[in-house]
Every structure is written in structure tokens, then in C-alpha cells.
Amino acid sequence: MTTFWLLAAVLIAATTACMLWPLLRRRAAPDPGTPERSLLVDLYHDQLRELDTDLRGGTLTAARHAEARDELGRRLLDDAAGAAAGTGRAGTSPLLAALLLALLPSAAILLYLHLGNPVALWRADDLPESTGSQHQLSGAQVEGMVNQLAQRLRESPGDAQGWAMLARSYGVMERHADAAAAYARAVELAPDVAALRSDYADVLASLSGGSLEGPPMAQVRQALALDPDDPKALALAASAAAERGDKPAAIGYWEHLYRLLPADSQTAARIAANLAAARGTAAAAQTPKITGMVMLSEKAGRTQPGDTLFVYALPTDGSRMPLAVLRRQARDLPLAFTLDDAMAMRPDQRLSGQQQVMLEARISASGSALPKAGDLVGRTGPVAVGTEGIRIAIDGAIAP
């Protein structure tokens, strides 16, 4: 901050000196012996000699001669005064110089306080260490400046930029309620500025414990209506969509935002990570699957730990070509299972192509994929693809 004010003082001093130098510079007064003055005197003598000649020649009366001499003298005085004014009027102007010296620095400082961001200049390392805690002193200095800005806005409440600056300052100080009130005033004065609305939404979310639902989301929607490319509004909209579980909407907002950012920026890297996570979650959520539990009933008989366990889904039309197959061992029972397209035996025969399927669980002593007499088996269905928590009880055997 000290460097900034030193540079500002140097610039103000240089500007003031450039403006005051022409006003304070003293110029030389006109010399009575200058050529202009000598020319006037010579002309006066020539005309005076002509008047005397006319008087001696009788063409001019004595009264008229005296009147002409007086007129010639007045003309000489007027011409001499005009010449002196033309060469010596640029003297000093101390009153104007004093006014400029008093007003120019003050005007420059007031203009910066109105249009600039003086709060950003305050840093802890600008403050003396001998006055207790640096953090506390810095906070006191900042709060004093913010209070001055608030007082100025109370006197001139129509300054939208001033209210926005005050709101951002309150946000830095974590005075979210005051920041929200200041943003509300700024939005009222400048309703078409998208960035103000997205900042307002962020503060409202802070007051709501981080939730963007309700008034914060209303401000986000209005911001995007005003400017579909507003970065903060896009980020908030994506977060709100992810919060309510709408992954496709979140991905859309993040993709839009990512296209606006420099590819090598840290923000772009974070958005890319969000996209990767959201796409993975969305893909997993959209993959058709069936989940459940396989159990061995007491009625099924005894098994050996090395027996093979098959869990598979079959079409409801009676075909024996499995749509998805899971292979485990009998010692894994009871077994929690998941069947999905990744377990398909043929790319054209998958769970995702069916509305309903039949489920079977089979224990094979030989490990054969084909059912054989004596294999223990349990069946259920039809069940809808996407059903979770299905229970399959192995409670019978395939007849010879």
C-alpha cells in the first residue's frame, strides 16, 4: 500500500507542477525603449510637426491647433497602453494557482475512493508490528475504511458501483447479512448487470447454509437470462444441479463454463475434474443393472466349497442365452450380486435391451456353464431391469 500511495503522490505532484508553472512564471515587463514604443513616439512627433506647419501656414486656427494637439496626445496614450497590454499581460496568477493546488490533489483522491477499490490496498504487512496483533490491526483499518464507504453511500444512495464495492467488502469480512443487503441495493439500482446478481446469489447461499435452492437460484436464473456466459452464474447453476442430483444439467453447465475458461488455468482444471466425476457418476447411474442377494436354502442339500456358483439373467421369452452372467464359488454364499451390461456374453444381447428378465442362481459341482442334472438351482422373475434388492433362494435341483 505504501508504494501505491508514494507513486500516486509523485504523479499528483508532477501534474500539479505542470499546471501551475505557466500560471506562476513571471514574464518581463515591456521596456519603454522597445521598438514599438519608439515607433509610437516618432509618429506622434511627425503629426505634431504637421499641425505646427498648418498653424504657421494659416490653414489651421490656434483654437483648432490646440484641440488637435490634445486629441493627438490622447491617441498616443491609448496606443501606448494597448501595446504595453499586448506584450505584458501574461503575468502571474497566484489566486488561480492556489485554487488548483488545493483542489487537484483532493479531487484525485476522492475520484479514486469513488471509482477504485481502496480496501484491496490494505495488507497485514503494511501495518506496524509493535501495536499488538497484525491481524487485528489490519481488520480494524479495513473496517474503518468500509464504514467510511458505508457513510458516503448513506449520503449518496444512488451509486450502484459503490453499493457493489461495499457488498464485496462485507463479503471479505464475512458479514454476509450486511453483504446481502448491500447487494440487494446494488441490484435494485442496476438490475441488468448479471455479475451483480450472481454475486448476490452466492451471498444468499452463504446465509442459507450453502444451499442454492430458493432465492439464490432465482438470482442465478436471472443472471443467466441476462448473460448466458456469466462464469459465476454458470458455476453456481452447476453446483445447484449437482446438489439436487441432476447430473446431466450439472454437466451441461460445467461444459459451458469450461469452454469459456483458458485451458491452462487452475479453474479450468477444477471444472474438468468436476466433469470427470459427474460423468462417471451419471454413467454409473444410467447403466441398467439388477442387484440382489443369493442364499442357499436348507432344502437344497449339501454343497462343496469348491463348487461353482453361477448367477445370470435370461430373457423372458424362454431363451437360454444369458444376458448377463456372474461366476463365483459356493463358499461365497450368501452372495450380494450385481448384474449389468458389462457381464453380457454377446454385444447384441444385453440387459439394457430388455424390459424384464428371469433370474437364476445355479451351483455346479463340475463347473460347467451348461446346466446338468443334479445341479442345485433357484429361480425368480420376471423382474424389471433396474430392480434392486432381489432375493434368490437356491432351494431345488435339476431333475435327471
Please explain how this structure is put together.
With 400 residues, the protein is of the alpha+beta class. Among the domains are: 141-284, Alpha Horseshoe (Serine Threonine Protein Phosphatase 5, Tetratricopeptide repeat); 289-397, Immunoglobulin-like (Sandwich), CATH 2.60.40. Helices cover 55% and strands 13% of the residues. The protein has helices at residues 2-24, 35-57, 62-88, 94-115, 134-155, 160-172, 176-189, 194-207, 215-226, 231-243, 247-260, 266-286; strands spanning 289-296, 308-315, 324-329, 335-340, 356-364, 376-384, 390-394, 396-397. A five-stranded antiparallel sheet has the order 3-2-5-6-8, with no helix packed on it. Strands 4-1-7 form a three-stranded mixed sheet, with no helix packed on it. α8 (194-207) packs antiparallel against α9, α10 (231-243) runs antiparallel to α11 and α11 packs antiparallel against α12. The longest helix has 27 residues, at 62-88. Residues 28-33, 84-90 and 123-137 have low confidence and may be disordered.
Say which CATH homologous superfamily of the domain at 141-284 is assigned: Tetratricopeptide repeat domain
**What's the CATH topology name of the domain at 141-284?**
Serine Threonine Protein Phosphatase 5, Tetratricopeptide repeat
Report strand %: 5-15%
Order of helices and strands: HHHHHHHHHHHHEEEEEEEE
What is the CATH C level class of the domain at 141-284, in words?
Answer: Mainly Alpha
Strand order of the largest sheet: 3-2-5-6-8
**Main sheet specs:** 5 strands, antiparallel
Q: Uncertain spans, ≥5 residues at pLDDT below 50? A: 28-33, 84-90, 123-137
Count of extended strands: 8
N-to-C CA distance: 93 Å
Total number of helical segments?
12
User: Which CATH architecture of the domain at 141-284 would you pick?
Assistant: Alpha Horseshoe
Given the helix and strand composition, which structural class is it? alpha+beta
- Could you tell me the radius of gyration in angstroms? 47 Å
Helicity, as a percent range:
40-55%
